[in-house]
Automatic annotation (TrEMBL), chains A, B:
The keyword Signal applies. Pfam families: DctP. It comes from Sulfurospirillum tamanense. Gene3D superfamilies: Bacterial extracellular solute-binding protein, family 7, Periplasmic binding protein-like II. Coiled coil: none annotated. SUPFAM superfamilies: Periplasmic binding protein-like II. InterPro entries: DctP_fam, SBP_TakP-like, TRAP_DctP_sf. This is TRAP transporter substrate-binding protein. Keywords: Signal. PANTHER family: EXTRACYTOPLASMIC SOLUTE RECEPTOR PROTEIN (PTHR33376:SF5), PTHR33376.
Amino acid sequence: MQYWRRIVATLVLAVAVLTSASASERKIVWKLAMTWGGTLHPFTTSVESMAKMVETMSDGNFIIRIDSANRHKSPFGVLDMVKAGQYEMAHSASYYWKGKDVNLLPFTSMPFGMTAPEQYAWFYYGGGMELMQKAYAPHNMYSFPGGNTGAQMGGWFRKEIKTLEDLKGLKMRIPGFAGEVLAELGTVVTNIAPGELYTALERGTIDALEWVGPGMDIKLGFHKVAPYYYTGWHEPATELQYLVNQKAYEALPEKYKEMLRVAMRVAAYDMYALNYHESSEAWAQIATEFPHIKIETFSPEIMNAMKAANQKLLKEMSDANPLFKEAMESQAQYLKKVRVWTKMSDFDYLKDNL
Amino acid sequence: MQYWRRIVATLVLAVAVLTSASASERKIVWKLAMTWGGTLHPFTTSVESMAKMVETMSDGNFIIRIDSANRHKSPFGVLDMVKAGQYEMAHSASYYWKGKDVNLLPFTSMPFGMTAPEQYAWFYYGGGMELMQKAYAPHNMYSFPGGNTGAQMGGWFRKEIKTLEDLKGLKMRIPGFAGEVLAELGTVVTNIAPGELYTALERGTIDALEWVGPGMDIKLGFHKVAPYYYTGWHEPATELQYLVNQKAYEALPEKYKEMLRVAMRVAAYDMYALNYHESSEAWAQIATEFPHIKIETFSPEIMNAMKAANQKLLKEMSDANPLFKEAMESQAQYLKKVRVWTKMSDFDYLKDNL
């Protein structure tokens, strides 16, 4: 009897120890709300690849369920939903929150701002991440880069834009801060749902529109109805954002925190490479099938007017918001140095190899 | 007695099940050999960050021990050591193996080739990774991108290079394939150990040398003794490589395979961003402290001669090696499309914003 008792005691102890180790592997299930509908490739597929990496690395123990806007019905409510803890995380773009909190505007892309390699250098090594956390802290969340579209094109125009006069009264769909800049120049900025854009452009309800770049634009068919494709100025590197509820993140075991951080980071970089690839392929296809389409760049007169309007608006916003001002100054100072390097490295190489 | 026996049987079963689950968590320890000495930042620190990510994500159960060349004493032996399974993995640059297997040359950087964003798009979405695995398969290994320096500078010169005549007889340290291109133009290409480079340049033993870019060059002090810094042509985006023994990789549990893949990928992208940042900072410092240093670009006459020599050498190698030819054709075809996109996106934006 003594013998059996000792064995039982030992086994009970062993089971207790192993069960507690196993309990730390208990499945964690998070919910992520996207601003996007379910099929907005490559935004949605990038989020899916992030969740898949976390699932595989955690051996199926950390699952992130993705709700598209088709399901949660609130594309621009995701900030509030993560803040309230209704979703543990979201995928969106920081510049959508300008109306709620202007301090969140600077982390997606700014007119006449940094290119993607410059911006990644700023985020990760030039103080950008720290400023982004400072701006998101009042919303009880962390924010992480969520994928880059690369330089966005200036938009599809039915008619050539030669002078500032041509912009006056022009009806254009261009959302956000870039729209405010053009409004300063007399453009009539309109807001039209994505599903109605093609018809609006075809029928002349609008004269021009801005979407993303060839890779994403080609699916909407704008090249069939507007023969002028202008190069960009307003979003030289549009970085999307992951938003993560602070309390939910801090409650994760260290290994899951790291899996999430690393998976978001690689999915973001990958989206930049994928957008680069798809824009290159899509433009080659458009140029072959629609050889009459012209790539144009706005004239120096127009560019200078845009820059002046941009500076005027930024100054107004900076004067009223110290944290916004701090982010703008950080970007301006960084850009001053990094653009010199961009010129002597990639730019000088490219100008002899176009 | 019956009662005790049933309890014991149940407990024995429970322990067996839990012990087997726990056994799959047995610690895995790998060894990684670097081509670099122990302090070649940011190459070595990038490898360290990769290993740290794997360690944290695996909760300390997958450890990668790093040996620098100071320890294993064989910087250019790492390919053979991984092939033989002496090390599970290595960190090096694929173009170092040109002499052993020319098919491995195309995966680091080629003269007049792709920029970093173009090359990442090619690797991950344009067929580059598949070609790289095909080239490494005969060596029983997989290869993964291992970090990018960005565009490398053309080098530090004691005298200005105005004509092709100035290159003839010029003594320059420029290793690898770029050195062969310059040798075609009459440059006397020499090989000097890194530790002796500064003195050789200072004393005029050599007239010029190529290293990396401002971020890594500044530590070696070349700017103190050579006032002409030429822009690059020979390595527009130098991607290092991880080499992984195929058998060792395939023996890993799926979750560890994924942690390794993801950690290598993010460390590689991060190194590109970090090099961008450090080159920008270092050049700002050099330009401030040594304002006499001139950034120069080789003349069209010199560039065209380099391009012709490059094409001649590539053709000879392509004719003799079908797999090398396949990789060169893939890069050339990709470049043709992607450079058009680079021009209309980043280049056209930059030319109005320098």
